TrEMBL record:
Highest rank taxon of the organism: Bacteria
SMART domains assigned to the protein according to its UniProt record, in alphabetical order: HTH_ARAC (SM00342)
Protein name: Helix-turn-helix domain-containing protein
Keyword terms of this UniProt record: DNA-binding, Transcription, Transcription regulation
Residues of the HTH araC/xylS-type domain: 221-321
Cited InterPro entries: AraC_XylS_family_regulators, HTH_AraC, HTH_AraC-typ_CS
Any one Pfam family match given in the protein's UniProt record, by short name: HTH_18
Length: 327
């Protein structure tokens, strides 16, 4: 992948806002609009907001863009209401996932009205609608290219429960995107975007299953990233990963099996790799007992056996070989 730094920067964006704090209300909407224009861009034009909203814009918000996907979280402490919808991006999909309160859309004479309550989502393809919410409403909005939909969903609006396994997995992945998008390189942007699209497809078609080959790599990738983050945590286990990703342990294990490994072996091998790296430290090297304890092996003997099986040497032999080679 030969993307330049400028291309990578243009393909991702991120900003956050908390205008509920004292002193931030008067400029809250201006800060939000500036962040949107500079970090998200013209491909996702903002609607016109009502004067009441712009004058009292008390929200906690975070927004992330990955290529042609935008993720917007809004937690309102004031009324939010639009006064007009933007033009130029009718051929997109919007997915509204309401966690608290109620989100209303529509209101014009020639369009239906929708109320999405907490625990529901609205999937809509077509021109954007007016929207509004009362205070204490929390919603996540995904704007996606229309390619995520099968033809039978085009120009339709669907309201369903948001408690499905595929929706929970999509929400877990969007959380990861929010946390990492600012640091992603070209490969990371591509992977994050592909996962968003595949998981959105699963939500729109309602066909998510542990046996579906197209989604197994996405789940495995998300689990590995999470495991790497918590590698030294004594609570790290297949069960913990499954809970964090809102899937069953069986589903997670099947996804790893497709890649020719198990969840447990991945965690063990990553811990052994980290321990081996520690043995090459130019300063004080940790003892075998310290390594075993830090990387959650039951005791030193267990760690030594696992290390030798993996690398063909005991930790002490490996450390001496590094000294001999000058590493």
């Amino acid at each position: 992948m030969n993307s330049t730094g400028a291309e990578v920067a243009d393909s991702r964006g991120r900003f956050s806002l908390d205008s509920t704090v004292p002193g931030a209300v008067s400029r809250g909407f201006d800060v939000f609009r500036h962040g949107w224009q500079t970090q998200v861009g013209d491909s996702f034009p903002l609607p016109t907001f009502s004067p009441a909203t712009t004058g009292d814009f008390r929200v906690r918000s975070r927004v992330a863009k990955v290529r042609d996907v935008a993720i917007t979280d809004l937690d309102s402490a004031s009324v939010i209401r639009t006064a007009g919808t933007p033009y130029g991006y009718d051929d997109q999909v919007r997915l509204y996932v309401v966690r608290r309160g109620a989100w209303g859309l529509g209101g014009s004479p020639d369009r239906d009205e929708y109320t999405v309550s907490a625990g529901q989502f609205l999937l809509r393809h077509g021109p954007p609608l007016h929207f509004g919410a009362a205070p204490d409403t929390t919603v996540r909005i995904l704007t996606l290219p229309s390619a995520v939909l099968e033809p039978r969903f085009r120009n339709r609006s669907i309201i369903e429960s948001a408690d499905s396994a595929e929706m929970r997995l999509l929400m877990a992945h969007t959380n990861m995107v929010h946390a990492t998008v600012a640091d992603l390189g070209a490969v990371g942007v591509h992977a994050a975007h592909s996962a968003l699209i595949e998981l959105a497809k699963a939500v729109t078609t309602g066909r998510f299953d542990a046996a579906e080959p197209g989604l197994r790599p996405t789940l495995t990738q998300a689990a590995k990233a999470l495991a790497d983050r918590y590698l030294a945590d004594p609570e790290l286990s297949p069960g913990m990963l499954a809970r964090e990703l809102n899937v069953s342990v069986r589903t997670l294990q099947r996804a790893f099996t497709t890649a020719g490994e198990s969840v447990t072996s991945y965690i063990r091998d990553r811990r052994l790799a980290a321990a081996r790296l520690a043995l090459t430290a130019p300063s004080r090297r940790p003892t075998v007992g310290e390594l075993a304890a830090h990387w959650q092996f039951s005791d030193s003997s267990h760690f030594i056996r696992a290390f030798k099986k993996r690398y063909g040497q005991t930790p002490a032999e490996y450390a001496r070989s590094m000294e001999t080679t000058g590493s």
